[in-house]
Write a structure and sequence with these properties.
The protein is of the alpha+beta class and 146 residues long. It contains 3 helices and 5 strands, in the order αααβββββ. Belongs to the FlgD family.
Length: 146
């Protein structure tokens, strides 16, 4: 016996229509409010009419989703801030003497930073014609004559 119509309400039907109208093909595979609404509508459709869902539980689930979204937003913002800080730090090295340990030879190398590239996830600084990851640079001094 189908339960559709028994548990449906205007709000549930409206929510189901809104969820169905939004395609998720370009969305990431994370739990978002759209997925939550789909789960909630499915839960309401398939619940036992003699034992409906506890509204406190539903509110608790919505609160957890909101908290998760805020944490995700904060993480994204922190990652963007860190990326910007790395870019600024790399740009500030241009024209300065930097030192690093060459991974191949293990020798300490010192030279003037002449360029910066943001093509990789970690910016690279060109030192003596060689691209060096920003996180490998171990020392900075002002180039003589500056």
């Amino acid at each position: 016996m189908p339960l559709d119509g028994i548990t449906g309400s205007v709000d549930t039907a409206t929510a189901a229509a809104a969820v169905a109208a939004n395609p998720t093909s370009s969305r990431s595979q994370t739990m978002d409010s759209e997925v939550f609404m789909k789960l909630l509508v499915t839960q309401l459709r398939n619940q036992d009419p003699s034992s409906p869902m506890d509204t406190n539980q539903m509110i608790s689930q919505q609160t957890q989703l909101a908290m998760m979204e805020q944490i995700t937003n904060q993480t994204t913002t922190a990652n963007e801030d860190f990326s910007l800080q790395m870019r600024m730090a790399a740009a500030n090295l241009v024209g300065k003497q930097v030192s690093y340990t060459d991974a191949a030879s293990g020798a300490a190398v010192t030279g003037t930073a002449t360029a910066v590239s943001y093509a990789k996830s970690v910016p690279t600084v060109t030192v003596n014609g060689k691209e060096v990851d920003l996180d490998v640079i171990s020392g900075i001094t002002t180039a003589s004559g500056s």
